[in-house]
Amino acid sequence: MNITVIGGGTGSSTVLEGLKSKKDLSLKVIVGMMDDGGSNAVVRDEFGLLPLSDLRKSIIALSTENEDQILRNLFTYRFSQGDGLKGHTLGNLLMIAMTEITGSEVEAIEMFKYLFSVSGDIIPVTLDKVKLVAEYTNGMKIVGEHFIDEPEEDRKISKFYFDGKAKAFDGALNAILSSDYIIIGPGDLYTTTLPNLLVDGIPQALQESSAKLIFISNLMSKIGQTRGLTLEDMLKTLEDSIGRRFDYVLVNNGKIPQKAYQRYVEKGEHLFKEDIKGKDRVIIKADLVANSLLKKDKGDTLDRSLVRHDPEKLGTELYKIFRKGWRSKLFSFLAMYR
User: Fold this and answer.
1) What share of the chain is helix, strand, coil (3-state, %, to 5)?
2) Alpha helices, DSSP H only, in 103-248?
3) Structural domains of the chain ordered from first start
């Protein structure tokens, strides 16, 4: 069964971690290439490369269970000091070196797939270097994923686009067209999820694909992106970009750890109102939240979410969807020959 995850960052990595133990699944992840914060700023500005962090996270997420833990720890190690090194991960530096050795980011991915025994495909959504542009209802305009992602105050986005043209990488289109299920999210709406859907060719492929679409939202709202929005608001934003409806929506009904929840509320964030309209989507409610809080790496200066989806819980619920769909297809096939 062919499963494709579209997104990037920790959200997609969590989904991949939850599904990689299912040996009957062929996994692919289409990764956004618009991140320009932290270490990725140096990668883009000094080396002229596409951002590498989300590719690195996907490599780790899809590495097999028996990989060398020392090698894995080295790949994820983040420098906490040192001029020019603080904030960088060793994995990003190694990927820069591998890109220069092999001649392209795509070839570098293939080499690291071999080194980490990755069972799955990791595909950039585009090879074009573009930046995100957000226009707000107050007339302000912000360029760059990093600045959009970490605003000083809440504001509402009215227009969202690239500063240039971005064409879908052929591998991303092939993955979408050959999928049985496509998972979008979890991830920040405007800086992680939506950018992939703005790439020329991606919406068209999603419309043409016979795959079932699954949406997983973030657990809590985020300043400058989803504060004040409901689940239906987010679905409408994404579906308008795709040009088709989601078939399944996974909604968390588990309890957010109280300490983390209180910190979100104090910052003005909230849970999403469940106001999903229409009967053409299957809504699945389950406990999807991790019980432990996220621990930031030393040297990590970016603002991160405190809570995450639990990989095993997500994987269990998603696999139920896949198995149910497989049984329905089998019964339909058998019925044809009765």
Assistant:
1) 40, 15, 40
2) 105-115, 145-149, 170-177, 194-198, 202-208, 231-242
3) 2-336 (3.40.50.10680)
> d(Cα 312, Cα 16) in Å, to the nearest integer?
10
* Phi and psi torsions of 331, nearest 5°: -65, -40
Question: Angle 39-47/90-102 helices, nearest 10 degrees?
Answer: 30
Q: pLDDT band for 233, please (50, 70, 90 cuts).
A: very high
Report yes or no: 60 and 73 within 8 Å, Cβ to Cβ.
no
Q: 151 phi and psi, to 5 degrees?
A: -75, 155
pLDDT, one tens digit per residue, over 46-81 is 555 566 778 888 988 898 755 557 767 777 787 776
User: How do residues 156-200 score in pLDDT, each as one tens digit?
Assistant: 999 999 999 999 999 999 999 999 999 999 999 999 999 999 999
Q: Is 224 left (phi over 0), alpha (psi -120 to 50) or beta?
A: left
**Residue type present at position 238:** L
- What tokens does 308 get? 């995450």
Q: How far apart are CA 241 and CA 204, in angstroms?
A: 10
Between helices 53-62 and 105-115, what is the axis angle to 10°?
30
For residue 119 the two structure tokens come to 């069972």
Strand pairing report for 26-31 and 141-143 = unpaired
